[in-house]
Design a protein that fits this description.
single chain; Alpha-Beta Plaits; alpha+beta; 161 residues; two-stranded antiparallel sheet; 2 domains; four-stranded antiparallel beta sheet
Length: 161
């Protein structure tokens, strides 16, 4: 059995019991428990969270994907900037990426105004950040490998026939 098998099953459904995982992997339940405990202690498993279809809630949160470009200096590295940004509770994910921009940041707030103010007042003023581009999430069709809703919604503005 590989740790990867256990991790893939937990990613599929973090509510699987150790007995469920043992059955699916033909392992003893105690071996599964030890593997999970070892992965948690090593920091490989950092937490367990539900996959939420925010479109199904009446008081939906506003979510945005923000592209960030930075200019590093001799004293500041990517890790320093990431540490500063990750402290904000509005930031739900932050990744250093390759391509046209440096960081991909996910932000949540109660309104577009709140998210916009957060970006303009807290993120953009960081000295090393040279550009921000904000994309508001209209509809999610898949989160963490799980398909959401019926997929027929299109929240963009449209003209009725």
């Amino acid at each position: 059995m590989s740790e990867r098998e256990v991790l893939e099953l937990l990613r599929e459904n973090a509510r699987y019991s150790t007995a469920d995982i043992a059955r699916m992997t033909d392992l003893e339940e105690s071996a599964v428990e030890e593997t999970i405990e070892s992965l948690e202690e090593a920091g490989v498993i950092c937490g367990y969270q539900p996959v939420v279809d925010w479109d199904e809630l009446e008081d939906e949160r506003v979510r945005a994907e923000v592209e960030l470009n930075v200019m590093l200096d001799r004293e500041t590295g990517y890790g320093d900037i990431a540490e500063r940004l990750a402290r904000f509770p509005q930031v739900t994910a932050l990744r250093l990426v390759s391509g046209d921009y440096d960081f991909d940041m996910e932000v949540e707030g109660d309104s577009i105004r709140e998210v916009s103010q957060f970006i303009s007042e807290k993120v953009a003023p960081v000295p090393e950040i040279t550009q921000t581009v904000t994309h508001y999430v209209m509809t999610s069709y898949k989160e963490n490998g799980i398909e959401l809703g019926d997929g027929d919604d299109d929240d963009r503005l449209s003209v009725s026939p």
